Amino acid sequence: MSDNGPFRLSRGGRLIDRAYPLPFRFDGRHLRGLRGDTLASALLASGQLMMGRSFKYHRPRGPLASGAEEPNALLGLGQGGRFEPNQRATTTALVAGMVTTSQNCWPSLNVDVGAVNNWLYRFLPAGFYYKTFIHPRPFWKHVFEPVIRRSAGLGKAPTEADPDSYEQAYAHADLVVVGGGIAGLLAARDAGRQGKTVTVLEQNPHWGGRTPTDHADGQSRIDAALADLRAMPNVTLRRNTMATGLYDHGYLIAREALADHDPNAGLPRQRLWRIRAGHVVVASGALERPLSFAGNDVPGVMLASAVRDFIADYAVAPGRRIVVVTNNDDAYRTALAALDAGLEVPAVIDARANPSGALPQAARARGIRILSASAIAGIKGGQGVQVVQVCSHVGAGQVSETIEADCVAMSGGWSPVVHLWSHCGGKLNWSDAQAMFLPDTSRPPTGDDGAAMATPVGAAAGDLLVAGATGAEPEQPLLPVWVMPVNATKAMKFKMWLDFQNDVKVSDVELAAQEGYASVEHTKRYTTLGMATDQGKVSNINGLAVLSAALKQPIPQTGTTTFRPPYTPLTLGTIAAEARGDLFQPLRKTPMHGWHQAKGAHWEPVGHWRRPYCYPQAGENHAAAVAREIRAVRGGVGTLDASTLGKIVVKGPDAGRFLDMIYTGMMSTLPVGKCRYGLICNENGFLIDDGVAARLSEDTWLVHTTTGGADRMHAHMEDWLQCEWWDWKVYTANVTEQWAQVAVVGPQARNLLERLGGMDLSPEALPFMGWAEGQIAGIPARIYRISFSGELSFEVAVPAGRGLELWEKLHAAGADLGVTPYGTEAMHVMRAEKGFIMIGDETDGTVIPQDLGLNWAISKKKSDYIGKRAQERSHMTDPLRWKLVGLESLDGRMLPDGVYAVDEGVNPNGQRNLQGRVTSTYISPTLGTPIAMGLVRHGPDRMGEVLEFPVAGAETYKARIVDPVFYDKEGSRANG
Question: Global pTM?
Answer without folding.
Answer: 0.84
